[in-house]
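User: Predict the full complex structure for these chains.
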Amino acid sequence: MIKGHGDDGFAYGGTIIHDFSSNVIAAMQPEGLLEHLQKSIALVGHYPQPAAEQLAAELAQRKSILDDEVLPTNGATEAIYLVAAAYGGTTSAIVEPTFSEYADACRICGHSLQRIRSLTDAGNDADMVWLCNPNNPTGRLIDKERLLDHAYTHKNKLLVIDQSYEHSTKGYCISAAEAVEAGNIILIHSMTKRFAIPGLRLGFVTAAEHIVRHLQKWKQPWSVNALAVEAGVWLCRNALPTDITPFIEECRWLQDRINDIEGIEALPSDTTFFLARLDNPCSTLMKERLAGEGILVRNACNFHFLDEHYLRIATQEHRSNEQLLKAIKKCILQ
Amino acid sequence: MIKGHGDDGFAYGGTIIHDFSSNVIAAMQPEGLLEHLQKSIALVGHYPQPAAEQLAAELAQRKSILDDEVLPTNGATEAIYLVAAAYGGTTSAIVEPTFSEYADACRICGHSLQRIRSLTDAGNDADMVWLCNPNNPTGRLIDKERLLDHAYTHKNKLLVIDQSYEHSTKGYCISAAEAVEAGNIILIHSMTKRFAIPGLRLGFVTAAEHIVRHLQKWKQPWSVNALAVEAGVWLCRNALPTDITPFIEECRWLQDRINDIEGIEALPSDTTFFLARLDNPCSTLMKERLAGEGILVRNACNFHFLDEHYLRIATQEHRSNEQLLKAIKKCILQ
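Assistant: Here is the predicted structure of the two-chain assembly.
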C-alpha cells in the first residue's frame, strides 16, 4: 500500500492553510451535491445494491454504451486491484513514472513486471500495458490516436488506461464507446477526482462486455457504499460539464511564475497539476519547510524513475497560488 | 458475487412494508449518528487516511489490544476477500451452511475447498477453517471454549471466525484479545451490522500482529470511505452497549407463534434471526407470495446444504412480526 501520498494534511495537526498536494480540484465539486447527500443520509441504513446496478445503468446511458460495459467500483483504486486480480499471473508493462498502485496491485496478483518509460518500450512478452492518461504525476497527455493505434496493432494484448484525470485536460481522451469498440482497452474512470469527492470513493470501469464479465467474477459485492451510489446517480442526472480552461490558464500562470524563481523549474503539463524540479535534490526537506509555512505539496521522490529533485504541485485558486510562490521563494535551498 | 441475498426490497419497486430479509436490526442504530454524519458531510471532499489509521487506534483502545492488531475494512466483505487473497492457494474448510462469500472469495484466490458440516469434520490437510459465529443463516452459536480449544490444538492451522453477529446473541464470543493471544485466530467484525449502517460499509479484522502485518500487504488503500471512518470513530466514543435481551425475547415469541402454524417450523437459534423450514419445498414461491403482501423474507435455498425448504427470517419490531404471522398464514402452501 502507498506510503507518502498527497492530501496528507492530517499529518500536520491542522496547521495546513493551502493544499497543493492532491490532484483534486476543490472547485470542481458541483453545487447542491453535499446538500443532496445530507438529505439522503438515511440510505446508510440499507445495503447498497451488490454491484451498484442502478448506477451502472445511469453511467452507461451517459457514456452511450450498454449496461454490461460498465462496472462501478470503490474508487479507481478498487478498479486497479480488480483488473490486476482478474488477469493475475500475466506479464505487465507499466509506463513510469506513474501512480504506484498499478505496480503494487500487479505484484500482489503475481504479475511479472516491466517498468518502461514509453508505450513503445513494452516488450513483446508483455500481455498487458498499464498507463495513466493524462499521467499522474507528470500531467502529460498521450495523443488518443496513438493509443488507439497501439490497441489495434496489438489485438492480443490488453491496454489498461487510467483516465482518472480525463476532465483535467483540454486534450482528447479515449471515449468509453471507443474502448468498447476496440475490445482490448480497459478504461478506469474516477468520479472521485472529477467531482472532488475523494472521501466518498467512486470510480468505474468501461470496456467491452467480455472484459466486464470477466472482471465481475473477481468483484466483491457491496464495495461501493450507498452514499457513493446515490452521489453517482445524482451526478449523472444533475452535473453540468465544467470548462477546465480557467484552471489550465491559472496553472500556466503559476508555472511561469515558478520558472522565474532560481533553483526550481516547472515541467510541461497538459493538466492543472505538474512536476516541479528542484536544482538541489531536497524534495523531502522542501516539503517539510513548506508545511512549516502552512503549504502542503506532494513530495514526488517516491515515484518510480523520480527522486529527491521532484515535487508535484496541483494548482489551486489564485490567492493560494500567490501564497505558494511566496513560500517557495522563502524556503528554497540554493 | 452473491445473487439472491437479503435486503433486496429494491427489486419490488417500493411495495415492501415490512422487511425481515436482512439480519440488520434497525433499532440498533444509535441516536445521533445520522445527525453527526450530516454535519460531517464535507469530509467527502478529502481522501480518507489510506488505512484508516485513526479508526484502527480507536478500535484497538476499545478492544484492549494494540493498534497493529486491528485492520479496518470496507465492510466485513472486504475482510473476507482480503483474508482469502493473503492466504491464496491454500486448502480451506468451510463450515456450511453459511454466508456464501467465504467460498466465493476462496475460489477466486485459488483455494482448494472442503465443504463441511461441523468444525470436527475439517480434514487434516485443511490449512484454514472458516466459520461464522453466531452463524448466518442458522443463528446458532458455537461455544467459544470449543473454538479456542480447536485453535490451541491446531497451532499450525488458521481459524477464521466471522463474528459479524457477535452483538446479536446473549452467548459468549471470542474477544479480540483472546484471538490475538491464540495467534492463529482471525476475527472478522462488522460495525455495519452492529450499528445498522450497512450502507456505509464498515468492518474490521482483529488478529495477532504478524497476521495483520501479512494482511496489510494485500490491502488496497482508501478502501474505507471518509464517512465510514468518521462514523466508526464517533461510535467508538459515543455508542453505548445495547441490551439484546428484548430482541431475543421477541424472536422467541415470533418463533413460537410460527411453530403454531401448520406447514412451517422455526429452527432453534441463539440470535434474533433464524431459519424457518417449510414442509413443502417452495421457498422461492413463498418469498414471492409474501412480497405480494408487502413482506420481505430471505429465500435461503441458495445456501450450501440448504434447499427450497428454507426461509431466513430476521425478527423486527412486534407490530411487524404480527403482520408477518398473518401473511405466512395467508400464503403458506400446504
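Chain A has twelve helices and 13 strands.
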